[in-house]
Amino acid sequence: MNRAAPEPKANMGQPAPRIDGRQKVTGEARYSSDVSVSNPAYAYLVTSPIAKGRIVRIDLRDARAVPGVLDILTYESMPDLKEVPFGAGGGGPTTSWQDMGPEIGHEGQIVGMVLADTFEAAREGAYRTKFEYESEMPSSSFGSPGITKEDASKASARAKKLPQAGNAEGAYASAAVKLDQTYGTPTQHHNAMELFTTTCVWNGNELTVYEPSQFVYGLKNGLAKKLAIPPEQVRAVSTFVGGAFGSKGQLSPRTWFTAYAARKLNRPVKLVATRDQGFTIQTYRAETQHHIRMGASRDGKITAFIHEGEEVTSRPDPYAVAGVEDSARLYRFGTVKTHVTLVHADRNTPGFMRSPPVVPYIYALESAMDDLAIKLEMDPVELRRVNDSMTDATGKPWSSRHLMQCYDEAAAVFGWSKRDAKVGGMRDGDWMVGWGCASAVYPTHVGACAARVRLTASGHAQVAIAAHELGTGAYTVIGQIAAERLGIPLNKVEVALGDSDLPPAPVAGGSNTTASACNAVAKACAAIHRKLYGATTETVGGGMAHTDERPRLEQAFKQLGVGALEEYAEFLPPGAGPDAMKKLYAGTPYLSGGSKGEKLMYALGAEFVEVRVHSLTREIRVPRIVGAFAAGHIMNPRTARSQYMGAMIWGISSALHEATEIDKRVARYVNDNLADYLVPVNADVQQLEVILVPEEDNFVNPIGIKGIGELGNVGTAAAVANAVYHATGIRVRQLPIRLEKLLAV
Ligand code: MOS
């Protein structure tokens, strides 16, 4: 795990250490709630203990009597702010529940905000508020009374046209070998280290918001809409984000309540919501169910693939991840039928959570592939090989696909050929040993993006772009592309990100940041290069020179007679409309990729896992994971490896640990804290091997970058489940795999 970064291969950039690493480890990096503003008031939220009903009485006398309490906002004192439609993406609101009541739509809905001179007084005030409710019986999840079902294709734009090919029911009915199984994934919450925080400062009509955000242009424009002020009057700043994973991509009610409070008090207001409030005031990964039927010939060719998913969402909002879009294309199925049903319950609206469509849907597919391999008495790698293809069932070609290369490289390092295929056939003393594998896949998203680059005659560059640093290394790779294209060392590049005053980048979601931002920066660098050297030598700056071109640069500046050059560039990915940039400025990002265009654009990988299950205690250990990934041009093998390692650890988490438990009687999250919401600790993570498989694909974008942030945790849970089956003969089809589910051996 702690080896030095490998030597870069042909299509890989330098393994540069993070340029913001020192700031982060010394505490010098300023996260949103660290930003100091003068004379702030502190906000503390009051949230609803009921999931469904209404507020019938509010008594704030005791709360107002707390020394230091300045004001208390409730639905009675909040003016009606403009309803902004729920936006399942970009900067739109996370939910249609946009008021502090009196109607209550989910447990933990914000019903009040106490403002005070100190955090402690605000908290004390919040504890002393008295809200009386009239409560109705809520519906909590699948199978609860009162849920309503809806065809996702009718409600969600994402699910409008799901893949279908041929007569899958017919092909299934006549298949020689059949699999019919259901799989399920639990509710999960992001639980980023950094809490949900918002600080609002008004200066006359101008509002500055400091908030950890995956999309500062969305935040700026959405908030302006909500407050009914021109977007030019709002600035959103998010210099560093302490983990987001999809939870900080959209505008949420807390932000407009804080902005309103600051305007009302005429004083900066700072809110840091608590860990448990974070479970309900933002989004989460909803629980899913999958019914998969597969038909195959005896030699393993899959002739029919039928994937029907169900996803929980809130009462009003049709949030769907609809990952059949990806599961139905991963192999060359003869025929395909897919469907997604939304189940509306009295819950907060779910939202993006790391690899939103593929984590649950590929867990189901890759578990089913293993189930099918067992039925066929076939090696699971061979089953994938037999069904590998450069086109999907609808005839759409892949722009590049190196899935089997990933399998071959990972299998060799893992030692897969030494596997005893017999279930329970590998044992080490008291430990039952199992080996399993699964595929990883993630859509290659690339977004419309702008950037500004300034280069001085002394060889210093400044890059400005409203992209976001979520802990992934964005500052570093964006600096690297400028250094490479301008021919200067990385330490001469200054990178500014996360501020809506800078040229816009898309939402840092769908793993698009490196591809979108680097292509925009490269374009601005190319323009500078042309001015300096003329068109003929553009290839010098266009190549990955990694050389210091400063003597040549000084000469060129001298000839031009200027001290600096500055260029602004706009990058549009294939398929973007002519107004994509205008829309981005207005807070709506355009992302291409995945199955959207004329070719399938995806990054792929293969993961091999060893598990050990103790024969007496059923303790489950994952001593070893090997993952091989092919994701186009890798800007930085060091940060890429970190991404993959973190992702595979998250995969262990999905497999063995994570689940938000719901008290079904009251539709309330029970383990809404980091003591009871389990995530892996160091002892749960042992050997992780990452293999970067070289791949070139200049169809996806000029530099050939495929996003990697969300790739590595896709498939891991299935690989663990498959290995657990191999060890024990018990197939767990509802995550997470906890030891009580293995007690039957
Ligand atoms: Mo990620 S869930 O696309 O922020």
Topology:
Blueprint: H1 21-26, E1 41-47, E2 53-59, H2 61-64, E3 69-73, E4 103-104, E5 110-116, H3 119-128, E6 130-135, E7 148-151, H4 152-155, H5 168-173, E8 177-185, E9 197-203, E10 206-210, H6 216-227, E11 234-237, H7 253-265, E12 269-272, H8 275-281, E13 288-296, E14 302-313, H9 324-327, E15 336-344, H10 358-376, H11 380-386, H12 403-414, E16 426-428, E17 431-443, E18 446-447, E19 449-456, E20 461-464, H13 474-486, E21 493-496, H14 513-533, H15 538-542, H16 550-560, E22 564-571, H17 580-585, E23 591-592, E24 602-614, E25 620-630, H18 637-657, E26 662-663, E27 668-669, E28 687-692, H19 716-728
Parallel strand pairs: 1-12, 10-11, 14-15, 20-21, 25-28
Antiparallel strand pairs: 1-5, 2-4, 2-6, 3-5, 7-15, 8-13, 9-10, 9-12, 13-14, 16-17, 17-24, 18-23, 19-20, 19-22, 24-25, 26-27
Helix pairs in contact: 10-19, 13-14, 18-19
Question: Can you offer a commentary on this structure?
Answer:
This protein has 19 helices and 28 strands. By secondary structure, it is α+β, with helices and mostly antiparallel strands. The protein has a seven-stranded mixed beta sheet with strand order 3-5-1-12-9-10-11, with helices on both faces. Strands 7-15-14-13-8 form a five-stranded mixed beta sheet. Helix 18 crosses helix 19. Residues 537-545 have low confidence and may be disordered. Residues 214, 244-246, 249, 352-354, 356, 509-510 line the site of dioxothiomolybdenum(VI) ion.
